[in-house]
Amino acid sequence: YKMSFAGLNSLYDAFADQLSSAGYDCMLYGNKNSLEKVWDDTDTRPVWLAHYTDKTDYKGPYVMWQASQTGNIDGIDGDVDMDILYE
Fold it and tell me: Which pLDDT band, with edges at 50, 70 and 90, does 1 fall under?
């Protein structure tokens, strides 16, 4: 998209501010690599980590972990994401 990482981070902040002012919560969603290399301030932004492994080695804080995209739930045909919300 020809946007710098700094520009992308600023765009996220502006978007999150608009959502917050409208009364919505938001999270920064990303895989381990993008959270470590692209996004700034992951210590202050709520993070939803996508890392498909039994035990993540992501060092930053996160409030939700998507540990799999191939889970099974009775009554649902096909694969589902398996997420853990920490509160």
Answer: confident
- Beta carbons within 8 Å of 20's beta carbon, 6+ residues apart: 26
Q: What's the confidence (pLDDT) of residue 5?
A: 92
DSSP element (H, E) containing 6: helix 5-21
Find the angle CA(78)-CA(34)-CA(1) to the nearest 5 degrees.
Answer: 95
Mind giving me the DSSP string for 7-68?
Answer: HHHHHHHHHHHHHHHTT----EEEEHHHHHHT-S-TTTS-EEEE--SSS----S--SEEEEE
The single residue listed with the structure tokens 């996220």 is 12
Q: How many Å apart are CA 15 and CA 17, to the nearest integer? A: 5
Task: Quick: pLDDT tens for 46-68.
Answer: 999 999 999 999 999 999 999 99
The model's pTM: 0.85
